Amino acid sequence: MQVYLVGGAVRDELLGRGVGERDWVVVGATPDELLRQGYRPAGRDFPVFLHPQSHEEYALARLERKTGPGYRGFSTEFSPTVTLAEDLQRRDLTINAMARSAAGELVDPYGGRADLERRVLRHVSDAFVEDPVRILRVARFAARFAPLGFTVAPETLALMRRMVADGEAAALVSERVWRELERALGEAQPTRFFELLDECGALAVVMPELRPLAEHALAALQMAAQRGAASPVRFATLLAARAAEQVEQLAARLRAPNEYRELGLLAARLDKLLHNGASEHYQVPPTAEALLALLEQADALRRPERYAACLEALALCGEAAGMPAPAALELTTQLRAALATISVIKLAEDQLRSLPGPAIAAQLRTLRLAALRQDPLFK
To answer: Cα–chain-centroid distance for residue 81?
Structure first.
């Protein structure tokens, strides 16, 4: 039995990056042998075990054969006779198909180290076309490593296009698309994920609502990444200029978590309200009544954190569309201040006792409107 460190940990070590999660491959062993050594089963489709001390994943070397369409159309074969080279050959990219032995020897049968030096993302073999998730993974790695100068090999891009043309991208399920999308949003250059999917034709299949890709939306997304914005804010910058119906369709298609769906939808709605008709840049609503209506539509009083995140996304969108950064910051500061102005208003306890339920809300609205009319914005 031989154990090898494989995949991303080896790649990142050679790149001089911090190594996070580590994966291991076991060659020449059976499930019973690992169980006798205290490993615990972790996988259902193929034998993956958790180490008794580190709890890291150890997978038996295996082969995969295509049996049907989509990423689920595989049969898995594992036995002590499967070699490390055979196991590595089924991986997506050469830079992910390297291993390191317990003695520290690098095992690199497919030229991964050379491709790291060339800054190239290249498929290991033609078996790449058998799994459509690899289209998304290549796009995500492109987003991660674009700042280091990595590009996709022309022959790999050609395979990705062929897969889309053959209908493989249409077999992707929403959960896998969302998983890769969410991870890509957190990468150093998330725009590359969407650009590459568009280049190979997959974006039109899995996220048609984002086409055509708007340059200012991509610029806003990249600024959000550079400034360390949270992933839901990054998602919202990509959607703010879209119609609310498109945002709803995309979120439903991908089964996006509510945090992302709600923030993206709110950004799309407030984007339209803050343009005030034909205005090129965002503007504070011209009247206290309009401003209060905006705060109400944003549900800002009940959801101030979501409102603040939306303003962060819209400030980035405004700046990307040509609005000076100080002006974008001032606008969002004013909108936050307006919320603070009305958030402190409460009815006195004796008033609450004397008013029927619907009248309480009406009275509160009247007081909030009066407070906004005293704001310097409307003087």
So the answer is: 39
Same fold flag, 1-118 and 119-206? no
State the average pLDDT over residues 75-96: 89
Residue 206 exposure: Cα atoms within 13 Å on the Cβ side: 31
Sign of CA dihedral 167, 172, 173, 177: negative
0.85 exceeded by the pTM? yes
What is the per-residue pLDDT for 69? Answer: 58
For 258-285, letters b (16+ CB in 10 Å) and e give eebbbbbbbbbbbbebbeeeeeebbbbb
CATH architecture of 1-118: 2-Layer Sandwich (3.30)
Band (pLDDT 50/70/90 cuts) for residue 72 is low
Distances (CA, A) of 237 to 105, 230, 241, 284: 45, 11, 8, 19
> Do residues 141 and 179 touch, judged by C-beta distance below 8 A?
no
AA letter at 308: A
For residue 316, which of 198, 230, 194 has the smallest C-alpha distance? 230
Per-residue pLDDT tens over the stretch 193-224: 999 999 999 999 999 999 999 999 999 999 99
- Spell out the domain ranges in the chain: 1-118, 119-206
As a CATH number, domain 119-206 is: 1.10.110.30
